[in-house]
């Protein structure tokens, strides 16, 4: 593949300001159960590539499966970039890299037979289904992917990378009288098949939680003091601040740049938020991003102040900031855009007991069903919750969806615990039709005042 | 395709089915008021299902130079696969409908650029501080399905999407507004679309306070599509079979107000997912799901039709969940096509003027995390307006709307508008036609 990249560069590189070629091959195995039925068992082989050209600030892009027609697509990308470009190309400078990054897997899922994988998942599925009355169904998913990437650009970078990705979930479903409740045991990682092992205790707990939710009252809508557990707080920071930190939201919006000026205060001096590609084994681990930029640990908030953003080379170049290695694409069908890797709130100093002791009436929100943001406002949903009464966890409640506003909610964080934990589920992040991208998040327990929770 | 089937049979498969997709996509996108990117996507791939020793196997590939691997992969999955509980489709008459629009196929990049530029000019004309974007996606698909039981059918389809959007940041207020068109035909009123986006900005420039509590709500067609995600899941043959939909055993029963009639129309002219046959080769059709409030049908694929002893509604589709684009790697499963809800008797303007006070809801954020199968929805009002004396008076922010459609659409309907408008799902892909729906006593939680 490398020689084909070099051929394209030889022929087209001098016809535009910048050119890159990307090939990708993915092998995937997938397993799914819906109730007792093995509802999905599949293998997927995906092979394709793209050419991306930049000329006078305009982009041309062509992706393809017909790799034999590479030169035709390269011609297209260059022509289109020349049609679009009317200004100046500005990419943040990076050193060209020539390197091979083979996968360094602790335990390679490709060495485990499909039959064995089905056996593991089937055992989990049966465990949940046999848990007892009330657990009437399940949703179980599993995937493993082994991906090879070839990347080259007109600046001389030529990178071969391998990446693993493993994930899924086991969700017991409880039904009663037309009501359906579930709870999720997610798992995931980038280098170790054993993330799928040893989930029995968590599955039993998930069955208990799902059954409990059938009887639990719905939460009453209104404003509450909340404690988020590390899993939900991870989703919170991803939605509340991660997305707004992505350079493409800001770089061409002058009004937003005024609001998102480096140095602006978003929270108390104990608040630190970062996004990192360096943590091996996590789904958000990344050595080089999809523009060939080495990843790093990027602080977004330090001591309460905005100090950084997540950039592609273009957003960094246009804002005069440093590239951070966050340009990622879902696959070769898409151009890379600024995305998160592993986004965390750094640990604080409080203990969980200190946190809860200060709350007369509030909600302890546990684990996450997900979240969404439109920049300023965001929502995130707790998969389980308990009321807090007189400083202690009290009765279970359900349907707890929280909303916040980036300009007020982070300021309302008043305590961070000392128990930072990262979590990988089997889902991923969605943006601009590119979904699900593997990301990780992490946080300690977080206490926030005045959070609106939906409900009747 | 015949070669793949022959190879599968020669390797011991009893039956085989091959799905072929070729897609050419052209995309024009404008960001921050100017042309940003021209893109072209060529996608070619094959999916193989086969039956060996009574077990179902499934594999897909986009590496057409290695079809042996495809057959090997499918055979391996069959070796530990699920029991084959249905038959592949048999050859028969297909609907004589075409979803290939020459105007879409021949639309030039220059014309796409003109459409976007006019939209952006419209927004900037209203307010030059708007960060405006716009774009077109045009796709031409060839889909072919062959199986060892004699089916060999093919169709071509055009798919077209256009959007114009803007973000207006004033202080720490961020206001997003957009307008969308999608379909298989170029049947779009651009001026009206541009005006829709501008009107959304115009009505939401100031913020309005709202107290927590039950209120009358007007859902726009876009918001109706949002909350109908619940019913999209509820009528799926897969969730019925699994026993986790509240609609299990409810065929023939009244589930909604008698003013509610909903169809899944896989043959709707211009419908984004309209096609002569589904991704298993079964003819697509118009299925009445709810008629005058009574549940009439579920949506099925070959397997769930057999298991539920239900008519096959031709809804076995390979769709990327929640995004809705075709996904080769996914096995066919019951999926919605294009939904159409019948309207009422008065225009939505007249209905609005009759609402004394309430909230107009156009877009709800975070819905996908709700317990949708149970009919529950809960999300932030991404775009909601306060109504006072029959007029919208400002934007409601930092507020959460929640409810259950199996209760609200049964007991809380005030009226449906006569006008039925096209909308996408979650403001994006797909084509669905819904009226405005006025509901009483919907809970909205706010900071005050």
Q: What's the order of the H and E elements of chain B?
A: HEEEHHHEEEHEHHHEEEHEEEHEEEEHEE
Beta strand % of chain B: 35-45%
Query: Which stretches of chain A of 5+ consecutive residues score pLDDT under 50?
Result: none
Strand count, sense and barrel status of the largest sheet of chain B are: 6 strands, antiparallel
Kindly state the number of beta strands of chain B.
19
The general outline of chain A is globular
Tally of individual domains of chain B: 2
Mean pLDDT of chain A: 97
Q: What is the SS-derived class of chain A? A: alpha+beta
Number of discrete domains of chain A? 2
Unreliable stretches of chain B: none
Q: Strand percentage of chain A, roughly?
A: 35-45%
Strand segment count of chain A = 25
Largest sheet of chain A: 8 strands, mixed
Across the major sheet of chain B, the strand order is 3-2-1-4-5-6
What is the CA–CA distance across the termini of chain A? 58 Å
Brief overview:
Chain A has 456 residues and is of the alpha+beta class.
Report on this model:
The complex is a heterodimer of chains A (456) and B (448). Helices cover 21% and strands 41% of the residues of chain A. With 456 residues, chain A is α+β, with helices and mostly antiparallel strands. Chain A has 2 domains: 2-215, PmbA/TldD superfamily (PmbA/TldD fold); 222-453, no CATH class. In chain A, strands 1, 2, 3, 4, 5, 6, 7 and 8 form an 8-stranded mixed β-sheet that branches. In chain A, strands 12-11-10-15-24-21 form a 6-stranded mixed β-sheet. The mean pLDDT of chain A is 97. Chain B has 2 domains: 2-201, PmbA/TldD superfamily (PmbA/TldD fold, 2-Layer Sandwich); 206-448, no CATH class. Chain B has 11 helices and 19 strands. In chain B, strand 2 (34-52) and strand 3 (55-61) form a beta hairpin. In chain B, helix 4 packs parallel to helix 5. Strand 2 of chain A pairs parallel with strand 3 of chain B.
């Amino acid at each position: 593949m490398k020689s084909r990249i070099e051929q394209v560069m030889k022929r087209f590189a001098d016809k535009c300001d910048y050119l890159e070629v990307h090939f990708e091959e993915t092998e995937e195995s997938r397993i799914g159960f819906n109730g007792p039925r093995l509802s999905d068992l599949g293998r997927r082989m995906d092979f394709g590539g793209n050419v991306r050209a930049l000329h006078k600030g305009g982009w041309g892009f062509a992706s393809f499966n017909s790799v034999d027609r590479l030169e035709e697509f390269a011609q297209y990308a260059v022509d289109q970039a020349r049609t679009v470009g009317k200004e100046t190309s500005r990419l943040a400078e990076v050193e060209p890299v020539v390197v091979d990054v083979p996968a360094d897997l602790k335990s390679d899922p490709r060495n485990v037979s499909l039959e064995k994988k089905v056996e593991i998942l089937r055992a989990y599925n049966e465990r949940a289904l046999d848990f007892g009355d009330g657990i009437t169904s399940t949703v179980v998913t599993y995937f493993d992917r082994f991906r090879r990437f070839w990347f080259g650009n007109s600046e001389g970078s030529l990178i071969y990378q391998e990446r693993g990705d493993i994930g899924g979930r086991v969700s017991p479903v409880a039904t009663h009288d037309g009501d359906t409740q579930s709870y999720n045991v997610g798992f995931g990682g980038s280098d170790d098949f054993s993330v799928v092992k040893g989930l029995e205790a968590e599955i039993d707990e998930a069955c208990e939680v799902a059954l409990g939710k059938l009887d639990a009252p719905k939460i009453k809508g209104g404003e509450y003091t909340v404690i988020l557990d590390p899993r939900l707080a991870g989703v919170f920071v991803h939605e509340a601040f991660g997305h707004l930190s992505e350079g493409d939201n800001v770089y061409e919006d002058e009004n937003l740049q005024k609001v998102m000026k480096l140095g602006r205060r978003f929270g108390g001096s104990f608040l630190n938020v970062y996004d990192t590609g360096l943590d091996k084994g996590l789904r958000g681990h990344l050595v080089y991003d999809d523009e060939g930029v080495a990843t790093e640990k990027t602080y977004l908030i330090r001591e309460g102040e905005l100090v950084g953003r997540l950039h592609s080379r273009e957003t960094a170049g246009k804002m005069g900031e440093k590239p951070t290695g966050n340009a990622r694409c879902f696959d070769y069908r898409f151009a890379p855009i600024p995305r998160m890797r592993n986004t965390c709130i750094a640990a604080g100093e409080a203990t969980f007991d200190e946190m809860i002791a200060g709350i007369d009436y509030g909600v302890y929100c546990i684990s996450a069903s997900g979240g969404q943001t439109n920049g300023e406002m965001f929502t995130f949903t707790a998969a389980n919750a308990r009321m807090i009464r007189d400083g202690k966890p009290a009765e279970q409640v359900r349907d707890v969806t929280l909303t916040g506003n980036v300009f007020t909610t982070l300021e309302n964080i008043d305590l961070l615990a000392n128990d930072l934990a990262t979590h990988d589920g089997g889902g991923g992040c969605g943006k601009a039709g590119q979904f699900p991208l593997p990301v990780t998040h992490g946080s300690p327990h977080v206490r926030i005042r005045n959070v609106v929770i939906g409900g009747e | 395709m015949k070669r793949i089937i022959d190879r599968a049979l020669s390797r011991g498969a009893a039956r085989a089915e091959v799905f072929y997709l070729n897609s050419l996509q052209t995309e024009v996108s404008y960001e921050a008021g100017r042309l940003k990117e021209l893109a072209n996507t060529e996608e070619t791939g094959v999916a193989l299902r086969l039956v060996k020793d009574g077990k179902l196997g499934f594999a897909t590939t986009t590496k057409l130079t290695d079809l042996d691997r495809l057959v090997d992969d499918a055979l391996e999955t069959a070796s530990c696969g699920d029991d084959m509980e249905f038959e592949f489709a048999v050859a028969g008459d297909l609907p004589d409908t075409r979803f290939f629009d020459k105007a879409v196929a021949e639309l030039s990049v220059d014309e796409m650029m003109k459409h976007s530029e006019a939209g952006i000019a419209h927004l900037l004309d209203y307010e030059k501080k708007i960060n405006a974007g716009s774009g077109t996606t045009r796709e031409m698909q060839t889909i072919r399905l062959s199986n060892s039981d004699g089916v060999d059918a093919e169709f071509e389809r055009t798919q077209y999407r256009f959007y114009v959007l803007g973000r207006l940041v004033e202080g720490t207020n961020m206001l997003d507004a957009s307008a969308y068109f999608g379909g298989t035909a170029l049947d779009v009123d651009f001026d009206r679309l541009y005006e829709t986006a501008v009107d959304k900005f115009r009505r939401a420039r100031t913020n309005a306070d709202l107290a927590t509590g039950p209120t009358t709500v007007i859902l726009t067609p876009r918001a109706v599509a949002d909350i109908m995600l619940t019913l999209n899941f509820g009528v799926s043959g897969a969730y019925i079979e699994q026993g986790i939909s509240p609609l299990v055993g409810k065929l023939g029963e009244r589930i909604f107000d008698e003013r509610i009639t909903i169809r899944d129309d896989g043959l709707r002219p211009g419908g984004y997912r309209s096609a002569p046959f589904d991704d298993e080769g079964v003819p697509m059709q118009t299925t009445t799901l709810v008629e005058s409030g009574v549940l009439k049908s579920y949506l099925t694929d070959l397997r769930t039709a057999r298991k539920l002893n239900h008519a096959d509604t031709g809804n076995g589709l390979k769709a990327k969940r929640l995004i809705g684009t075709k996904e080769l790697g996914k096995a066919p499963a019951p999926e919605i096509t294009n939904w159409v809800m019948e309207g009422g008797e008065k225009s939505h303007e007249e209905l609005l003027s009759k609402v004394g006070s309430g909230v107009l809801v156009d877009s709800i954020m975070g819905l996908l995390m709700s317990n949708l199968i149970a009919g529950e929805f809960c999300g932030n009002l991404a775009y909601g307006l306060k109504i006072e004396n029959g007029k919208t008076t400002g934007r409601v922010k930092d507020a959460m709307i929640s409810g259950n459609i199996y209760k609200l659409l049964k007991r809380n309907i005030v009226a449906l508008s006569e006008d039925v408008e096209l909308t996408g799902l979650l403001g994006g892909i797909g084509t669905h036609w819904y009226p405005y729906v006025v509901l009483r006593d919907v809970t909205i939680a706010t900071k005050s």
